[in-house]
Amino acid sequence: MNLVIQILTGTLFHIRVAKDTSVADLKKEISNQEKLPENRLILMLDTGHGDSIMLNDDEISLIHNVNIRKQDAVAKMQELSQNSEL
């Protein structure tokens, strides 16, 4: 899986990882490539819909983590939609 990473300075770079790569593994790759302290990295996924998802569970794979967060976001949006109709 090819990822495009952007850090706060605006620098863009690419990282290639396996589909079962964990968030912790990705942090390690970013740390090694960009010489950044691994324990200070906070990863956010841009959903492309004007919001982002924090990837904060280091032990879960990237794919699993993203799918869970998307399901949570959809459920929350449905709940908000139902409440606004009342």
TrEMBL record:
Transmembrane segments: none annotated. This is Ubiquitin-like domain-containing protein. SUPFAM superfamilies: Ubiquitin-like (SSF54236). Gene3D superfamilies: Phosphatidylinositol 3-kinase Catalytic Subunit, Chain A, domain 1 (3.10.20.90). InterPro entries: Ubiquitin-like_dom, Ubiquitin-like_domsf. Residues 1-74 form the Ubiquitin-like domain. It comes from Solanum commersonii (Commerson's wild potato). It comes from the Eukaryota.
